[in-house]
């Protein structure tokens, strides 16, 4: 029976590469969600196993929208919450809207997605949160990223809390705190910086982790970085 993989934030960067990774596996059906469904449909048109759906974490009624989308699948075996919103501003320049939108996409939207997804998940399923080394305790921090990094830190706590609340279900919850990978978002945060890892290389690791690590690892926050925190 095919695995059903849900990827949130699938239109660019690591999310796009993740769709490519899973779509090439014969036993996978991929549900790719992003605000830019037109771009996804063009990029993933070669894959009959990929279904692209418009989905905005900063939209109205995120949970209800996700529930309608997930009603079209029998189960969810892997869900990767990869979407993210970057706000790069000095602390005193942050507006209430900057903070709200960042937390809505990076935290509140993930709450809503998981509330919709969990009824479709059962023993053996794996939820993977994509966080950042900027949200990993003890790591190097960077000026201007207080809204982004603190919102990504919240995903670490959410992972641990879901793992505890659902520990009898057999569902695994893990969080990957990613170091620098060459993506559009990295370029926005650090213009001109060249990461040691490509988006495709990072996606390969995440895809492998999502497919197998839940047999051995549950409720963990794992740094994925070539540098020392």
UniProtKB/TrEMBL annotation:
> PANTHER family annotated for this entry?
DEHYDROGENASE/REDUCTASE SDR FAMILY MEMBER 7B, DEHYDROGENASE_REDUCTASE SDR FAMILY MEMBER 7B
In its keyword annotation, does this UniProt entry include Oxidoreductase? yes
Keywords tagged on the record: Oxidoreductase
Q: Is the Protease keyword given for this protein? A: no
What is the taxonomic lineage of the source species? Bacteria, Pseudomonadati, Bacteroidota, Flavobacteriia, Flavobacteriales
| Family annotation (InterPro entries) | NAD(P)-bd_dom_sf, SDR_fam
Protein name per its UniProtKB record: SDR family oxidoreductase
- Gene3D superfamilies per UniProt: NAD(P)-binding Rossmann-like Domain
Family statement drawn from the similarity comment of this UniProt entry: Belongs to the short-chain dehydrogenases/reductases (SDR) family.
Kindly give the Pfam families that the UniProt entry links to this protein.
adh_short
């Amino acid at each position: 029976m095919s695995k059903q993989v849900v990827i949130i934030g699938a239109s660019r960067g690591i999310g796009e590469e993740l769709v490519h990774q899973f779509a090439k596996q014969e036993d996978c059906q991929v549900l790719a969600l992003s605000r830019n469904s037109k771009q996804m449909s063009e990029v993933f048109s070669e894959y009959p196993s990929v279904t692209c759906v418009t989905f905005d974490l900063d939209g109205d009624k995120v949970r209800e929208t996700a529930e309608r989308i997930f009603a079209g699948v029998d189960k969810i075996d892997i869900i990767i919450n990869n979407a993210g919103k970057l706000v790069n501003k000095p602390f005193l320049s942050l507006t209430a809207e900057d903070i709200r939108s960042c937390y809505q996409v990076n935290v509140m939207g993930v709450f809503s997605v998981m509330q919709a997804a969990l009824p479709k998940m059962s023993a053996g399923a794996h939820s993977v949160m994509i966080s950042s080394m900027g949200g990993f305790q003890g790591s190097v921090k960077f000026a201007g990223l207080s809204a982004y990094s603190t919102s990504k830190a919240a995903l670490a706590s959410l992972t641990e809390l879901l793992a505890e609340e659902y520990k009898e279900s057999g569902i695994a919850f893990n969080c990957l705190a990613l170091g620098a990978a060459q993506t559009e978002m990295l370029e926005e945060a650090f213009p001109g910086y060249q990461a040691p890892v490509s988006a495709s290389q990072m996606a390969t690791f995440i895809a492998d982790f999502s497919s197998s690590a839940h047999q051995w690892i549950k409720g963990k926050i794992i740094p994925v970085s070539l540098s020392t925190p």
